Amino acid sequence: MIQDLFDLKDKVVLVTGGTHGIGMAVGTVLGKAGAKICVNDISEDALAKAKEAYAAEGIDAYTLIFNVTDEAAVDAGISQIEKDVGTIDILVNNAGIIKRVPILDMPVDDYKMVIDVDLIAPFIVGKRVAPGMIEKGAGKIINMCSMMSVYGRNSVSAYASAKGGLKLLTANMCCEWAKHNIQVNGIGPGYIATAQTAPIREGGHPFNDLVMMRTPANRWGEPEDIGNAALFLASKASQFVNGHILYVDGGILANFGYVKGENDA
Ligand code: NAP
Ligand code: GCO
Partner of 104 at 20 to 30 A CA spacing, among 138, 184, 205, 224? Predict the structure, then answer.
């Protein structure tokens, strides 16, 4: 049956930072496809609230607190998941932060913090999870990239550096692990309505005009738009897709932009 292509029954999923926003949307869609959903976060309160939110969707989420930048905590966390739930079949490296500060004003420690969470952590978690996938002879890794994997823009140097690196870390994971039937891909969301973008989206922020001008779909993306794309990359339907960044951006990368009022056919 064609729908079997997207059946994730009995697959163990880990979504890092999966307690809200894009991560929760990904966990919810994959959970509704039958997967056993595991989410981590650095906040017990966020995990408790997330467990209730997943339950409201009929998903019994396994929650665990650990900081994805802490190699020892990641090792202990993955070992706990492997013991309590099972070997991870699908890893979504979603946890991420952003600091919007011009280079000349950004402390080096802040730059390093963003690189730690957004680039080094996916390396740490991927390196820890892959051996189980190799032993199983199958696996899916999805790295949450960005428009900033291909663009820079004022004030997001650390974030763009990390997300640009994550695009090529994805390629390198593919090169080393594809022979083990592990498909490693990225998702490059456009501008999505979450807590992370609230400061540049809400309250009449002028950035909203830029997003509308650059996005042919003429809307902010919703977290579910990313969850749906993740289902494809997590499923049997993408067995020969590897090292690819799937941009889910409403057409941003296809568009240079337009002047309001012109060509508004
Ligand atoms: P978000 O609302 O800020 O959620 C990020 C999640 O990561 C939160 O649950 C956060 O936990 C968690 N996290 C942060 N640092 C962590 C750490 N050290 N260890 C474990 N968990 C940690 O962001 P989002 O908008 O949903 O974005 C999710 C991912 O998509 C990020 O990688 C982001 O860069 C990427 N992305 C977002 C957009 C967008 O437009 N929103 C576009 C492209 C890419 P706490 O809340 O407890 O800190
Ligand atoms: C920003 C935004 C973006 C989005 C996303 C775009 O300040 O430009 O936060 O970086 O988060 O990464 O794809």
Answer: 205
| CATH number (domain holding residue 100) | 3.40.50.720
Quote the pLDDT of residue 82: 98
Burial of 264 (0-12, 13-18, 19+ CB in 10 A): exposed
The torsion angle over the Cα atoms of residues 233, 236, 239 and 245, rounded to 10 degrees, is: -10
C-alpha closest to that of 158 among 113, 124, 95: 113
Is 63 part of any domain?
yes
The pLDDT, as a whole number, for residue 3 is 85
Counting ligand 2 atoms within 8 A of each CB, the residue from 97, 146, 151 with the most, and so the one to mutate, is: 146
- Model pTM score: 0.98
How far, in Å, from the CA of 16 to the mean position of ligand 1? 9
- The CA 123 to ligand 2 mean position distance, Å, reads 21
Catalytic residue among 54, 111, 159, 247: 159
- The parent domain of residue 19 ranges over 2-195+222-248
Mean per-residue pLDDT over the chain, rounded = 97
Which residues line the pocket of ligand 1, CB cutoff 6 A? 16-17, 19-23, 40-43, 46, 67-69, 94-97, 117, 144, 146, 189, 191-192, 194-197
